[in-house]
């Protein structure tokens, strides 16, 4: 009898989906800690800033988020809780039956309790990738030209690592800033870096699909 691990159809897709899922959870934890540091401050609107006035290291740092909870302390605690669940599910269960759906539900809960808008953007793509872990990639095999597919298949790990590094740099700069740039230049830089990370993430997902297609073709 085959084990659950042996039944995984697209292993590279699982690695990519899991990696992005873990990042979503880490972003939520980071938001949650910043929200906890703001203390028992009432929330008066749906949109909040995870970085409070006392935590700002440069003028325009914000990290916007949504919260349906009554104050920053509760928001931060609940965010950390759901973010930890997102990480656990990403590592151990996202490949299971309905794994992608439950991952999305956990990510939505993280989002609605202060986990950050960026985290949820990543979670949407991670959900789409996770939904393909145990399904044939027939459509992608048809639309990806053979030459491009081979290039992407060889590049998936490089693309994933580059995405992670650039994303970590973006979050770091968002929090601490860069002393040699003014606020307007910083915002422009972060906007470009944000778009680049989203593009790299999407490319890493497609490259993961390509690697699994190539592995399937080589084996069969």
Description:
A two-stranded antiparallel ribbon has the order 1-2. The radius of gyration is 19 Å and the shape is flat. It is built from seven helices and two strands. It has helices at 11-37, 72-92, 99-112, 117-130, 138-143, 146-176, 183-219; strands at residues 47-49, 64-66. It has one domain (11-219). It is mainly alpha-helical.
Summary keywords:
3% strand, single chain, mainly alpha, disordered N terminus, 68% helix, 220 residues, flat
Order of strands across the widest beta sheet? 1-2
Tell me, rounded to a whole number, the average pLDDT.
Answer: 91
Overall structural class, as computed from helix and strand content, comes to: mainly alpha
User: What separation lies between the terminal Cα atoms?
Assistant: 22 Å
Instruction: Indicate the proportion of strand residues.
Output: under 5%
Oligomeric state of the chains? Answer: single chain
Largest sheet: 2 strands, antiparallel
Number of domains: 1
As residue ranges, the low-confidence spans are: 1-6
Can you write the helix and strand succession as a string?
A: HEEHHHHHH
Name the helicity range: 55-70%
Total number of helices? 7
Q: What is the total tally of β strands?
A: 2
Shape annotation: flat
Radius of gyration: 19 Å
